[in-house]
Amino acid sequence: MLSLHQLRCFLTVYELGSLTAAADELGYAQPSISEQIRSLEKSIGLQLFRRVGRGVVPTTVADTLRPHAEATIAAAEEALRAVQRVKAFETGTIRFGMFGSARLYVSATLVTDVLERYPGVRVEIIGLNSSEVLEDLRRGRIEAALIAAPPTNEGLEVLPVARDELVYVSMDPERTATPVTARRLAEAQLVMADTSYRATDSMRLALRKMLHEAGHNPQTRIEVEDVETAIELTGRGLADTVVHRGAATELVPRLAPGATWTVLRPRQYETFAIVHRVNATLSPAAQLMIELAVARIRAVAEPIR
Amino acid sequence: MLSLHQLRCFLTVYELGSLTAAADELGYAQPSISEQIRSLEKSIGLQLFRRVGRGVVPTTVADTLRPHAEATIAAAEEALRAVQRVKAFETGTIRFGMFGSARLYVSATLVTDVLERYPGVRVEIIGLNSSEVLEDLRRGRIEAALIAAPPTNEGLEVLPVARDELVYVSMDPERTATPVTARRLAEAQLVMADTSYRATDSMRLALRKMLHEAGHNPQTRIEVEDVETAIELTGRGLADTVVHRGAATELVPRLAPGATWTVLRPRQYETFAIVHRVNATLSPAAQLMIELAVARIRAVAEPIR
DNA sequence: CGAAAGCATAGGTTCTCCCTAGGGCAAGTC
DNA sequence: GACTTGCCCTAGGGAGAACCTATGCTTTCG
User: Fold this and answer.
1) At A180, is the pLDDT very low, low, confident or very high (cuts 50, 70, 90)?
2) Which of B100, B110, B96 shows the shortest CA–CA distance to B143?
3) Which of A7, A45, A140 is facing B87, going by the closest CB pair?
4) C-alpha span between B274 and B280 (Å, rounded)
5) Domain range B93-159+273-303, CATH class
6) Among B41, B114, B148, B261, which one is most buried in terms of CB atoms within 10 A?
7) Nearest-angstrom CA–CA distance, B202 and B166
8) Which H or E element spans position B275?
9) Cis (ω within 30 of 0) for the bond into B257?
10) Residue A170 — pLDDT band, cuts 50, 70, 90?
């Protein structure tokens, strides 16, 4: 079987015209080089060097092989360099999951942070829709993610890093003059985001629990996919909505100018957490993303611990 | 240390997404593949696959490595193909030595023969001057040669294949009307070729012996390097010359029109022989050249045995 | 919850790599 | 022409790599 080591020995011998010299050059004993050359000759079925008195002389076969051997060695070294560059974050792709409204807080700035420190890398933020993130985590296609809705999913390790309060958004200033109670919430016309995941969305669960405790049943008038859409509809006065404070700060001025918001009573919080598979040893890239994402979200939300 | 085997395993695992499947594909047991991947990961210092429940998933490092690994494997395979083509004479260079007047007989047609059978090869006929051939043989830079002056050189094996008669060439038809005796030869004004090798040239030795036996001393008027020059000077009537019949047939009509030739008395012969180092195992290329050269020279000269 | 699939580990065998020691041949030297 | 030197080869042995079978553990699927 052909090996890189054989090719390296071959090239050195070809260059120096001597097994002994090649052995010195490569730091081996002469019989070792001899053996490598012999095994290479055997594996191609042709003589590469003519043993002639003192020294060896390359055959025309060796002339033919030489450039290819050099190309092969070069390709192998280039392969090593490529992964070393990835190791040093000089290049390569870094993938990170981000799910729910978390992206509103950190996605853009996180990418900026990474690119600033490692200009060569390619950054992929996976999961503008939530199910993908969990599936990708479960399937191992991404190592870690920052999510806003801690699932009790088995096999996933969850590290809360910050929390953000839920706020009630409306175009009617009267409705946001005072904190919104469970009763008022139950009576409101609401537009809620993340339709597809209403069964597992932690915000929904929190609101449902709050209403239940007050003896009410949750009722939403409109269901949409995006937080953006929910806020935009609120801006048109069609309904009110409940979102994270961060989302409100970020989106209301742009999508629902004139809308105001207030907290709930009792106050409700959503936790942001880093999630990854249990027992996973995280890659440097993943650790970097986690570090930056945590720093960013702690700057804009309320840090936990 | 990086190895081609590791890269092959890596690519198969990457493609199939499974160690077990890769093991089946490559014909190994699963733990062997596992070990190869692990050692590759260790040698680059980065994880290539995330072990996730059922199967493995490539990391971004693996994505980076893959094209380089493919390029390296491809280069290695191309190297093998290249030498296999040489093996089959589909390409590559074939070197052969040819020395003395032998080239007049076979050099051009020999090249034609080779190119006809193996259109892809490059043919090099080494040694239009004689010393190079022996030196190249001695140094091992060529494996074999066809020569016209069998040297008693130690370390070289000589296989006579044909002989050619020496003829006396002159512009004076009277001098070639009858075979030339030693006495007439001693009296003639001669131009002789291969000056540089007069001490070892077998034709010189043969003539000298012939003259000595008749009690004469050899005396040459003009010494030149080339047979061509000798014949050309003969054509101008400046002197007569002694050359192989083959050289006369080939060159006299072109270089000395009007000149005629006759044999010597007693008749003198020059032997053509294949020469190579003793105990040398000849390459297929060398054997081919020998075979063709022998066939050719036996067609135009008088075969021995 | 049991069965199946897939990776990791353990232990042992075989093969490869590399070493040292010594033989043989060719080239250069006295 | 014998001697020395340089260089390759062979032989034999030890360390490590590669590979195998058997088995255990985790995840996934019915």
Assistant:
1) very high
2) B96
3) A45
4) 13
5) alpha beta
6) B148
7) 11
8) strand B269-277
9) no
10) very high
Residue of A nearest to B92 (CA): A64
Distance from CA of A114 to the nearest CA of B (A): 16
Predicted local distance difference test score (pLDDT) of residue B135: 76
Q: Hey, is the C-beta of B83 within 8 angstroms of any chain A C-beta?
A: yes
Task: Give the pLDDT score at B1.
Answer: 84
Number of CB pairs < 8 Å for A and B? 142
Å separating the CA of residue B61 from the C1' of nucleotide C5: 26
Q: Which fold has domain A163-270?
A: D-Maltodextrin-Binding Protein; domain 2 (3.40.190)
Q: What percent of chain A has pLDDT over 90?
A: 37
Identify the pLDDT of residue A39.
Answer: 96
Asked if residue B144 lies in contact with residue B116, where contact means CB atoms within 8 angstroms, the answer is: no
What phi and psi, each to the nearest 5 degrees, are found at residue A251? -105, -30
Q: Evaluate if pTM is beyond 0.85.
A: no
Is residue B131 predicted with pLDDT exceeding 70? no
The C-alpha atoms of residue B15 and residue A303 are separated, in whole angstroms, by: 43
Per-residue pLDDT of A257-271, as tens digits, reads 999 999 998 898 888
What is the average pLDDT value for chain A, to the nearest integer? 86
In CATH terms, B4-87 corresponds, of 2.40.160.20, 3.20.20.70, 3.30.420.40, 1.10.10.10, to 1.10.10.10
Q: B84–A2: do the CB atoms touch at under 8 Å? A: no
Query: What is the b/e burial string over B220-246, where b = at least 16 CB atoms within 10 angstroms of the residue's CB?
Result: bebebeebbbbbbbbbeeebbbbbbbb
Fold of A93-159+272-303: D-Maltodextrin-Binding Protein; domain 2 (3.40.190)
Tokens of B100: 């003395």
Q: Is the pLDDT of residue B151 over 80?
A: no
Say yes or no for a CB contact (<8 Å) between B141 and A80. Answer: no
